[in-house]
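Pipeline run #58 for the internal structure catalog. This entry was flagged by the ingest filter as a single-chain record with no existing model, so it goes straight to prediction. Upstream metadata was stripped on purpose; only the residue string is passed forward. Reviewer on rotation: M.T. Logging verbosity set to normal.
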Amino acid sequence: MRDRVPGPDVDEFAEPERIVTALARARPGTLLAVQHPHRTPAALAAGSSLLDALPHAVAELAHLRRNAYREVRDVVAPYRVDGPDGTAHGLLCMVDPAAVGHTEDVYPDVVAERARVLSGLGCVTSAAMLVPVAREVRLTGLVAEVDDEPAVSVVDPGGRRHWLWLVGPGERQDALLEAAGEHPLMVADGNHRVAASAGLSGLLALVTAGPDLRIGPIHRAVAGSGLSLADMAVAWRSLGLVVTPVDAATRPSPGVVVAVSGASAVRVELPSAGVDHAFVEAVLLDKALGLDPESPHVRPVTGDVPTEGVDAVLLIAPVPLADVLAVHEAGGRMPRKSTYFTPKPRSGLLLADLD
């Protein structure tokens, strides 16, 4: 980019409703509108489908590339991000999607939508985050040694500082690429982006091992269900679960979910070993409440917990990194929306053409 990312942070929003709201408030000409052309005010007013809106997105992206970006070729990008949720040194580059191990199950409809946008645009605007599966990762030290003037230096809305350098063909690029490819890679963030890239010429990704990666929580918000917190507690107790009232400030822990609604909260003890998110979706939501975890009544929540417009929020403890690595090593996958690695790269700093 020449100056700044055009519009809101393209990775800030996960739910379609929030994307629609953000686009309604944004000025014309944003990467968010390019990624979600059918959710702009004009597309919604016209009743346009994604396929209907794609030609406008292609034209909008071409305009942004001419005015907000400068062209670079055959580069890789050493990358650093530092903020309140950790520090990461890595390499932003193109990766073969087939060489990446998924860590979470995905929503098929989201993958299909992302794949249509990628193939229609012929350009990747948002990067996945991949973690080498190894104890010692040489790439971290190589990136830490980069002390040239960065091509990009920005602060995102969350207060994280991002630095990006551009390295063209030569010994330094070769060394960075060799280090990035030394170990198997698993998806830390962007399972849907990785799945949507299958069959395409490449995946834009930040390969990073930290040195200070963290996994934050991904909760579940229930809205429009017609159920009160008391109704939910009765349904959970009917399955033999131990449910007790607690203070609304109570935090979850592994094996314990805290459901909050306004000033009220209950503590739910999970009887089975395994990943808490799987039990929440299969038992607390589906079996007990009759709510499809993929329905509009259930949405993942990261960051600030909503207090308005929800029936309740099910707070779930973060998954330990050791558990994620163990599941990956065993060839398994985590439940959908169960791992929230930070700090993430900021998308829109570097775009990548698909051949």
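catalog note: The first strand starts at residue 77 and ends at 83.
catalog note: The chain has three domains: 16-68, 77-214+341-353, 219-317.
status: ready for reviewer M.T.
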